[in-house]
Amino acid sequence: MGAVLAVGVLLGAGGRSVVGLAQVEAMQAADASRQAELDRVRREAQHEVNALAARLAELQAQANRLNALGARLTQAGQLQDGEFEFDKPVGQGGAGRASDMPPAELRQRLAALEGQYRDADTQLTVLESLLFNRALDRNAMPSRDPIANSYITSGFGGRADPFGGGHQFHKGIDFEADVGDPVLAVADGVISYSGVRSGYGNVVEIDHGNGYVTRYAHNSRLERSVGDLVRSGQEIAKAGSTGRSTGAHVHFEVWQDGVVVNPRKFLGHNDALARHGPTRG
Questions:
Q1: Helix (H, G, I), strand (E, B) or coil at 45
Q2: What Rg value do the Cα atoms of the chain yield, rounded?
Q3: How much is the pLDDT for 25?
Q4: 232-to-112, 184, 235 alpha-carbon distances in Å
Q5: 81 pLDDT exceeds 60?
Q6: Among 176, 231, 226, 188, residue whose Cα is nearest residue 205
Q7: Looking at the predicted structure, is the pLDDT value of residue 250 above 80?
Q8: Distance between CA 258 and CA 236 in Å, rounded?
Q9: What is the DSSP code string of 174-214?
Q10: Which of 10, 29, 124, 229 measures 20 to 30 Å from 262, CA to CA?
Q11: What is the 8-class DSSP label of residue 171?
Q12: pLDDT per position as a tens digit, 171-198
């Protein structure tokens, strides 16, 4: 009997041990499954974060482009410094508690922001093109003096002929100059003539497009050849007194569609510096 009871006790204990081991193994399997699920969720969350980071980088690149466009437009539009500061953060504020933003809402807001950036980029690009074309037209319009720090000595139109008296129609305006002073292009254009003309001496002519041609006469030396591209303010000759001239000066003419016109309406020269005299031809 004792032996039988002992065997029964051992069998009962062994059975409980087997059940206990099975429970432990089941718990371990459940933990492994939960850990695997947790790892999967983490991977998906990280993938979502990486995707949002990529979209954020694209938005930052678009923002940088818009800032650069805005800076160029500020310069092209000749806006005052400080009127638009694209590097300055925009002030924001508000009351109330913040709450967690659902991922779906974040994605929706990013998509809306991307659309706004695309629209702004398109509009600013069109505006930049318009301002660029306007700048080209402005640079091709005679709008500056052909010599620096000078003044007008003889105006456009009727005047007394400096060579022996009588009446003469003066086709341009004369600027005071010394021999060798730089003669400057008054606008962008292409050299259409560089040589000697009767009465004018050494002459440079620039075709600015849109029907405008400017003429610079009585030069001591010519520094540009036909076909050269010149920009506003670039030196094209040295002042002198060649041709029909009483002394060193720059004779300047503007032709519009083949008709000589008064350069003063283009140059807007300061009247306080202008004086008309019969001493230059």
A1: helix
A2: 42
A3: 76
A4: 45, 7, 9
A5: no
A6: 226
A7: yes
A8: 22
A9: EEE--TTPEEE-SSSEEEEEEEEETTTEEEEEEEEETTEEE
A10: 229
A11: -
A12: 899 999 999 999 999 999 999 999 999 9
